[in-house]
Amino acid sequence: MNKLTIELTINNKKRKVETTTSTRLLDLIRDDLRLTGTKEGCGKGECGACTVIMNGELVASCLILAPQAGGAVITTIEGVGDDKCLDPVQEAFIETGAVQCGFCTPGMILAAKKLLEENPHPTKEEIKRGISGNLCRCTGYQKIFDAIKLAANRLSTRDGEGGEENA
Amino acid sequence: MEEFQEGLQNSKNFFRGDSKKSQRTVPCQYFAPQKIEEALEILSRYGKEIKIIAGGTDLLIQYYDRLYEINGWLDLKNLKELKIIEINKKHMTIGAMVTHAQLEKSAEIKKYFPVLSKAAADIGSPQIRNRGTIGGNIVNASPAGDLLSPLMAYDAQFKLLSLQKEALISAEEFFIGPKKTILEPAQLLTRIILPLPSKRTYGSWIKIGKRKALIIATIALALVVEMAEDNKTVKDVRTCLGSVAPTPIEIKEIRKKMVGKNFKQLDFNQLGQIVEDKIFPIDDIRGTREYRKDVAKEIMINALEEIGLAWRSYK
Fold it and tell me: Is ipTM beyond 0.90?
């Protein structure tokens, strides 16, 4: 195990972190940066609880070596919305009751955000595929589908009304 | 270890940005070179002592609780030339660092190699497809590797580079057992070269597993049929399967039965039976030998029907 320093941008902040050659990005985010919204479920890429957005792509942070994230731009759930104003996807999750135990929620919201970014009007099948890397053991998924539909509708009417500030 | 540190002194210029500060004080064993030549030099120096990491979606699972065992990493992430898909009149060249998501989204791969495109779309989940690479899938050499039977069906060749030599190896020669290939420690898989199929080439991809996402195939079939100029006679066919043998395999008997025949007069049932008879799968947690044999026949028939449908509508 050897130490090295990496620089990365996380939730719009540049950070310099000392890490090791056997640390996963997930551990760096949770233990070194203390951003504990990102969860560890299976640790093997199957559950999606550790999902973050890295360089614009949805990834499982448990399957990335910390040094591999050197120079990367990362968004975790802490970087979505802010204290005053939640992201429309977060609001929709709350309103539809798509949050139960909450463990899958950070990853699920990031997957949903990424899906809606690429496909603003997904069909149910497309929603299923978009969140196929995220397991939820509470909701039975129906409320999550409802939340993503609701967010999609709101985002499209908002954009239609000329609310381009977030586009 | 000593040799390792000495090597690190000599290869300072391999670190760019990632670890500038730690170079002098701490012996860092993570390399992320910008050039293929630098990567080859590191490989020739350290060979087996170093692990090549591409997307990491297989490696980090394999070493889940023993990452500390790995002495050194060679990360290919900065090798931009390995992230390119190129096409000329005769071939398509896919860089080893091209991800499954890139394969799935490429319009050219969809057009010329639909079976590869569909197989890439069936891998893991969005998170896995965004990181996992074609090169990693090949070098990992799992008997269930989703891209392997399509690559074999399209007659893929793999370019292996080392400081000393350059080799072009067919998919068939490359895989020698479960997770075993002929790749030497000093060699790097850099590119995958696929001959462009003729216009009248049809393909089918069928993957069977217990769920759609994040599943390792119980059995998978990549069938590619090329028609002759008359668009009636079968000119060539490749029937390749995954998860039925220690490596991806081609059922060559199908070629004997189909080439030169009118597609309309083929007996799908008989062809399915040949596939069933010629595979010798094992029992494992994903399925029994018997189940795999039964399903092999059915998916062969389904694949032929799918190709028949596309063929008829083209006429």
Answer: yes
